[in-house]
Design brief:
The protein has about 260 residues and is mainly beta. The strands form 5 sheets. Strands 4, 5, 6, 10 and 11 form a 5-stranded antiparallel beta sheet that branches. It has a 5-stranded antiparallel beta sheet with strand order 13-14-15-16-17, with helices on one face. A 3-stranded antiparallel beta sheet has the order 1-3-7, with no helix packed on it. Helix 2 packs across helix 3. The radius of gyration is 23 Å and the shape is elongated. The relative contact order is 0.15.
């Protein structure tokens, strides 16, 4: 028995955890539901806690270096400590709220390259290697976000890439330690324009929309006419022709700079 306890403390023959999501498709402000399934190992083990959260793979800039890091940006504890008997199973249902600022990972059924968000599960085990699990989720845009995205597609922009960067966009309602950038290639009529980058920072009432043309890496230049930030209500966005709005701004900046 002592040898089995030693093995369990090293992770061999110890408790295992698996999370099963009821629905992998969610929207910001929604709830992802699922069940954590805990399976006892070859010996009794003291469980110190069980938690689920959301985890994102975020780009970090440090000096001249860039690297990616997993950041857990919300976490919920499920129940307290208990003793898990050898060979027994425990199923723990949960509902995890999706923060309004959660980046979009899907547009029109297509995954955005560069987006990695999932439900993380951690089973804390006394005097042993913790058991964990990660299950991807698909975050679809809110209706107001989709209206802006559809406007870009209507104008002929093509999706280039998306990433999540650690830091804050000044002057927005941002609370998370990172933000999303969605990059688009411009259509031919906007010659001279390299790309447009789009960021959303939402809450339950409205969202900040941040646009930047021909962006210099790592800098949001509010003083420049290539930067635009505006607010869109979550329920009153229908009255605006967003394609016309975007085209007017692009055309004004492009003509000033003789881009097109």
């Amino acid at each position: 028995m002592a040898f089995k306890k030693l093995l369990a403390s090293l992770g061999a023959g110890g408790a295992s955890v698996e999370t099963v999501l009821t629905e992998v498709n969610v929207v910001p402000g929604g709830v992802v539901q699922g069940e954590v399934r805990i399976q006892g190992g070859s010996v009794n083990q003291e469980i110190q806690g069980l938690s689920v959260g959301l985890q994102a793979k975020v780009e970090i800039e440090s000096g001249d270096q860039e690297y990616k890091q997993d950041i857990e940006f919300t976490k919920v504890r499920l129940g307290g400590a208990f003793e898990l008997q050898a060979g027994t199973a425990h199923n723990v249902p949960f509902g995890l709220e999706i923060p309004w600022e959660t980046p979009v990972t899907m547009i029109d059924g297509q995954s955005l390259r560069g987006m990695h968000i999932g439900v993380s599960t951690e089973l804390a085990i006394a005097r042993a290697v913790d058991s964990s699990d990660l299950d991807p989720v698909n975050v679809h845009p809110l209706p107001a976000q989709k209206a802006i995205l559809d406007a870009f597609i209507q104008l002929g922009f093509r999706f280039k890439n998306a990433d999540m960067e650690r830091g804050h966009i000044r002057g927005t309602r941002q609370k998370l330690p990172f933000y999303q950038e969605i990059e688009f290639f411009p259509p031919s009529q906007y010659r001279g324009l390299n790309q447009v980058e789009l960021s959303f920072v939402a809450d339950e009432n409205a969202m900040d929309v941040i646009l930047e043309m021909d962006k210099k890496p790592g800098l949001f230049s509010e003083g420049s006419d290539t930067f635009r930030s505006f607010q869109v209500g979550q329920h009153d966005f229908h009255g605006t022709d967003w394609a016309a709005y975007l085209n007017q701004w692009l055309s004004e900046v492009g003509s000033k700079r003789n881009w097109f």
